[in-house]
Amino acid sequence: MATPNVKSEGNAVAWRIHKKGLLPVTMKKETISVPEPKQGEVLVEVHSASINPAVALSMGTRVLGMIPVETSVRYGQGSLATHVSVRVENLAAIPASIDTSLSSEEAAGLPLASTTALQLVRKARAGSKVLVLGGSTSVGLILLQMLKVEGARHIVATASGVKKDTVKTRGADEVIDYREEDVVQTLKRNHSREQFDVILDTVGDFTVFGACAAYLKESGEYANVGASNMKPDGSIWSNLSFLRNLVSLYLPWWLGGVPRKSSWVEFIRGALPEVTDRYLVTRAVTCPIDSRFAFDDAPKAYERLMTGRALGKIIVNIKHPGDPSVSSHL
User: Fold this and answer.
1) What average pLDDT score do residues 118-133 get?
2) How far, CA to CA in Å, does 244 sit from each of 122, 201, 215, 238, 253?
3) Helix, strand, or coil here: 215?
4) Beta partners for residue 49, in sequence order
C-alpha cells in the first residue's frame, strides 16, 4: 500500500542489489535520491511491500499497486524503498468504503497475487467443478475465494499438513494432501467419472497435467501460471526442465502431447481496478498474510520466502511504526 505524491525532493531509502547471489546476502540498504516521475508515472510513498517470487489519482490518495516483473528485471526497480515511481496503470485507488478497513499490509500483499488469480478465475464458470493445484500458495488462497464469488460448484485443491484447514476455510470443498497421497492416482480414483471442467495450476504441476485426460473433460482446460521447476539457483538444468514442461503445454496430441486444451496464462495489465471493484469492495476476498518484517529486516523476509513454507504473503513494513495502519502488526 502506498500514497501518491507529486514532489521529488530529498532522499529515499531503498534495499538494492549490486551483485549476483542469494538475496538475503546480497541485499544492501542505501540512501538514494527520491525518484523523479516520468510522464505517465506518479511518485509513491511506500507504507508496506510484499515479497514476491489506469486510474485518476490525486495527491494523498491511498492506492494499492505493484511494479511489474519485467520492470524489475529490466531496470532493477523494486518496491522495497520508502519512495518509488510507478506507472499509473499499475495502481488502483482504494475506495473510500474500505479505506479504513483495508490495512497497508493487506493492500501491499494483494496486487500481484490477486491479478494473477484473476487470470485463472476467468477460465471458470458458475457451476464449474474446479481443481486448484497449489491451494495453499498466496495465489491459490485468493483464487479459492474468487471461485466462490463466481459460483464454482465444487472445488478440489492440493495442500499439505496444517495448511489444509486454511485452504478449506478459504473455499476448498475437498483437499488432497500431496505429501500423504499420490495426487494423480487420487484424482483418477475419485474424479474420473465426474471430471473437472477446468484445472487451475498455481505451481506448475506438470505431472498432474500429463495425466489429466483421465479426470479433465474433453471440453475442459488446464491453465497454468506456476513455475515450480525453476530453482532459485538459476541452474541450466532447472531452466531446461521448465522449458521442456512449457513446450508440453502446446505439443499436439499426435506428437505425444496431452489431448486437452492447455494454456500458459499471461499477466493482465491494468487489472487492479477490476479486482478492487469486484472482490475487495465487498471484502469477499481478503489477503492471507504469513508474516511481517520491519524494513531493516528485509533480508530475513527473503529467508522466510526461500523456506517454501509461507502460508500467505510475506510483508515488509516500510512506513515508520507511527503509521496507524501498520503499528498494530509490528
Assistant:
1) 97
2) 26, 17, 23, 10, 16
3) coil
4) 316
What percent of the chain shows pLDDT beyond 70?
82
pLDDT tens, position by position, 68-88 = 888 887 888 888 999 988 888
Q: Is 183 helix (H, G, I), strand (E, B) or coil?
A: helix
Q: What is the overall mean pLDDT for the chain? A: 85
Report H helices in 285-328.
298-307
CATH 3.90.180.10 domain extents, the chain: 2-111+269-329
Distance CA 249, CA 252 (A): 9
Where in the chain is CATH 3.40.50.720?
Answer: 124-264
The span from the first CA to the last CA of the chain, in angstroms, equals 16
Instruction: Estimate to the nearest angstrom the gap between the alpha carbon of 151 and the chain centroid.
Output: 22
As a whole number of angstroms, the distance between CA 321 and CA 105 comes to 13
pLDDT tens digits for 10-19? 788 988 887 7
- Tell me the CA distances in angstroms from 166 to 69, 160, 199, 224, 225, one per residue in order: 28, 10, 20, 22, 22
pLDDT at 167: 98
Phi then psi for residue 90, to 5 deg, are -100, 15
- Classify residue 296 as exposed, middle or buried by CB count within 10 Å of its CB (0-12, 13-18, 19+): exposed
Q: Collapsing DSSP states into helix, strand and coil, what is residue 87? A: strand
pTM of this prediction? Answer: 0.81
Categorize the per-residue pLDDT at 4 as very low, low, confident or very high, splitting at 50, 70 and 90. low
Could you say which architecture CATH assigns to the domain 2-111+269-329? Alpha-Beta Complex (3.90)
Taking 80 as the threshold, does the pLDDT of residue 327 lie above it? no
Asked if 43 contacts 85 with a C-beta cutoff of 8 angstroms, the reply is: yes
Q: Which CATH architecture has domain 124-264?
A: 3-Layer(aba) Sandwich (3.40)
